[in-house]
């Protein structure tokens, strides 16, 4: 039998956390043959709720779940973890400036980075979900210099899956037959959902949809603004789909992407596609042996180029803002 893997979830008493921890305990994150020990972290005001989640995890009697650590102590939470899913973050409240939210999150990610740096297992893989996800991941990278940059990523898989979902609805095909959409850039409304290389059953999505106006307009908007549409409908933000796509992200990273298929991940830019190096930017990637690799050589038309640059500019600005909050 495999040794249990230790999985940290921060903000575990929150909405996404509540949807995510049972998925992890059922093997959705790492496979149904991989036992897990859950490390759940939250802040003191959420300690009682966090304990309630722990009680429910015990009550659910998940065979794969070999232990639960529920704590408000960041060192205890980070100790020995093999995977870290960072969901905790300071939400933007009414009347708050962008800079105020950034200051709060920069300080949270700085301190959690230091704890991971000192106490996580070697080769710990990190996924940042909390917004601003790309920039939080960058701060985490800065303050955890011993964690290789290739191990620090952020979530754009939800946006990727939303793009697949919209194409499947539009063409009335199974979502599992839609492949190789791309989310470029920031996990924000400046992201660029690109279907120029996407296929269904081997045929280009562009040919099948045969409506460039929709693909270059409405489709992009729907994907970019899907989160807001869900809040409007549910009066709560998307938690089920966020949790599910966080599992997809880690599972594909660890177990590999199928031959001929890529997914979108926010990763540290090496300058591929002329995206400035040193940003955490969403690219198409394939994964094998626990490592991601940016898909190279895709053609980028003029329309796409502008969109790739626009979202890169937003990320550069966020990066400067984050650094200004540090000083
Ligand atoms: P959620 O669980 O709904 O969301 C958590 C984070 O994920 C938010 O930053 C949210 O961004 C982000 N997110 C990224 N993608 C999505 C998506 N597709 N849909 C929804 N959210 C997304 O928030 P809760 O407030 O329910 O839970 C947060 C938890 O974090 C709480 O338990 C709280 O106690 C804890 N917390 C921890 C802090 C710390 O570690 N110091 C500080 C503050 C809170 P967005 O804000 O844009 O919705």
From TrEMBL:
InterPro entries: L-lactate/malate_DH, Lactate/malate_DH_C, Lactate/malate_DH_N, Lactate_DH/Glyco_Ohase_4_C, Malate_DH_AS, Malate_DH_NAD-dep_euk, Malate_DH_type2, NAD(P)-bd_dom_sf. It catalyses: (S)-malate + NAD(+) = oxaloacetate + NADH + H(+). Its EC number is 1.1.1.37. Pfam families: Ldh_1_C, Ldh_1_N. Gene3D superfamilies: Lactate dehydrogenase/glycoside hydrolase, family 4, C-terminal, NAD(P)-binding Rossmann-like Domain. One of its GO terms (biological process) is tricarboxylic acid cycle. Keywords: NAD, Oxidoreductase, Tricarboxylic acid cycle. Residues 156-320 form the Lactate/malate dehydrogenase C-terminal domain. NAD(+) binds at residues 11-17, 42, 105, 129-131. The active site is at residue 187. Residues 6-152 form the Lactate/malate dehydrogenase N-terminal domain. Substrate binds at residues 92, 98, 131, 162. Belongs to the LDH/MDH superfamily. MDH type 2 family. NCBIfam families: MalateDH-SF1, MDH_euk_cyt, PRK05442.1. This is Malate dehydrogenase. It comes from Heracleum sosnowskyi.
């Amino acid at each position: 039998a495999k040794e249990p893997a230790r999985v940290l979830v921060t903000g575990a008493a929150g909405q996404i956390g509540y949807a995510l921890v049972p998925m992890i305990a059922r093997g959705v994150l790492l496979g149904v043959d991989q036992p897990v020990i859950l490390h759940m972290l939250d802040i003191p005001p959420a300690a009682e709720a966090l304990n309630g989640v722990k009680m429910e995890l015990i009550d659910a009697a998940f065979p794969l779940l070999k232990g639960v650590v529920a704590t408000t102590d960041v060192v205890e939470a980070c100790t020995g973890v093999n995977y870290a899913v960072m969901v905790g973050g300071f939400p933007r409240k009414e009347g708050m400036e962008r800079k105020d939210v950034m200051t709060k999150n920069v300080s949270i990610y700085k301190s959690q980075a230091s704890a991971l740096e000192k106490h996580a297992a070697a080769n710990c893989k990190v996924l940042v979900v909390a917004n601003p996800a790309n920039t939080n991941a960058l701060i985490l990278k800065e303050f955890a210099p011993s964690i290789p940059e290739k191990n620090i990523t952020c979530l754009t898989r939800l946006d990727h899956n939303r793009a697949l979902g919209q194409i499947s609805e539009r063409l009335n095909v199974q979502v599992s037959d839609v492949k190789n959409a791309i989310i470029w850039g920031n996990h924000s409304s400046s992201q660029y959902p690109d279907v120029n290389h996407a296929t269904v059953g081997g045929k280009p999505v562009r040919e099948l949809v045969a409506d460039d106006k929709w693909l270059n307009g409405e489709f992009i908007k729907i994907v970019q603004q899907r989160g807001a549409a869900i809040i409007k409908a549910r009066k709560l933000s998307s938690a089920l789909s966020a949790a599910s796509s966080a599992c997809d992200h880690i599972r594909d990273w660890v177990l590999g992407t199928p031959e001929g298929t890529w997914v979108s991940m926010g990763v540290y830019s090496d300058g591929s596609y002329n995206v400035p190096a040193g940003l955490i930017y969403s690219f198409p990637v394939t994964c094998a042996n626990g490592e991601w690799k940016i898909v190279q050589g895709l053609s980028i038309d003029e329309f796409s180029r502008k969109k790739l640059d626009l979202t890169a500019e937003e990320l550069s600005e966020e990066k400067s803002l984050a650094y200004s909050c540090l000083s």
